[in-house]
Amino acid sequence: MSDIVILGVFVADTAYRADRQPRMGETILGRSFALGPGGKGSNQAVAAARAGGRVTFLSKLGRDTFGDMAMDTWAAAGVVPAVERGETPTGAAYIFIEEGSGDNAIIIAPGAAAEIDAAFIDQHAGLIGSARVFVTQLEQPMQAALRALTVARKGRAITVLNPAPAAELPDGMLALCDYVTPNETEAEALTGLAVTDLDTARRAGRALLAQGVRRAAILTLGAQGALFHSADRSIHVPAFDAGPVVETTGAGDAFNGGFAAAVAEGMDPEEATRFGCATAAISVTRPGTAPSMPDRAEVLALLGR
């Protein structure tokens, strides 16, 4: 049995580095191109497994080269796949990386994973309900995420929603979540409150608790680290310095995977937030998404400095 079950999407990342994005109708020369494994849920599963968690990843893939890439990625990381493979092609992502800063802009085409539905979730209800920690995001259809969170709550799993990409949630969805982990943009989409500093992050955290989040809102704040906000404590966890930033793509996924692994092993959620921040800090010093995820020893070494 896996301690952590993650529902999400695998896509093949096609990453382009250039000084800037082209304007509409314009062609520019890029500095480099890379093809590799991606998708928020898959990245989080890899991060959690490398951080020491026992992880099963739940998704759909095509019977194609990108699907084979997914299976190889999970095998290397120690992630157990619970996937259905069909004729719809595996998804892909366009990632633009700004050469000077490492910041990114992304377009996701989920492919086969867009066919994940409530019936698929019900087929795997036993797996979801038996998890210690269940994690999902919003790259697969919303109704599938909602159904999976409902099943996980009935099974008494600790539920984590990474509400990315930003989207309007159905009524009552946040009440199914023990933890919600938005970045600044996603927090604003959920609360209507712009997050620009710690004070506004705390306001957004209070708003998320008022909307039903059960244990805590954890706002990831990029270079500012993260804010852990619950009914009885509000704690800023500063970002760790693990070295020069190469690429920020996948940093949020690293955080969520590290956090899930720490919670699954019984770590206090504030300490789990620190563990997630350390995981993310190492990931941004490396190119790629899934390939940038650190192993447990690296995270513990950074925490011990």
SSE blueprint and pairings:
Layout (H helix, E strand, L loop, with lengths): L3 E4 L3 E8 L13 E7 L1 H11 L4 E8 L2 H13 L2 E7 L3 E9 L5 E8 L6 H6 L1 H5 L3 E4 L5 H13 L3 E4 L17 E2 L3 H8 L6 H13 L5 E5 L5 E5 L3 E4 L13 H14 L4 H15 L12 H8 L2
Parallel strand pairs: 1-4, 1-8, 2-6, 4-5, 8-9, 9-10, 10-11
Antiparallel strand pairs: 2-3, 6-7, 11-12, 12-13
3D architecture notes:
This protein is of the alpha/beta class and 305 residues long. The chain has a single domain (4-8, 38-88, 114-303), classed as Ribokinase (UDP-N-acetylmuramoyl-L-alanine:D-glutamate ligase, 3-Layer(aba) Sandwich). The chain has ten helices and 13 strands. It has helices spanning 40-50, 65-77, 118-123, 125-129, 142-154, 184-191, 198-210, 251-264, 269-283, 296-303; strands spanning 4-7, 11-18, 32-38, 55-62, 80-86, 90-98, 104-111, 133-136, 158-161, 179-180, 216-220, 226-230, 234-237. The strands form two sheets. A nine-stranded mixed beta sheet has the order 5-4-1-8-9-10-11-12-13, sandwiched between helices. A hairpin with a 3-residue loop joins β12 and β13 (234-237).
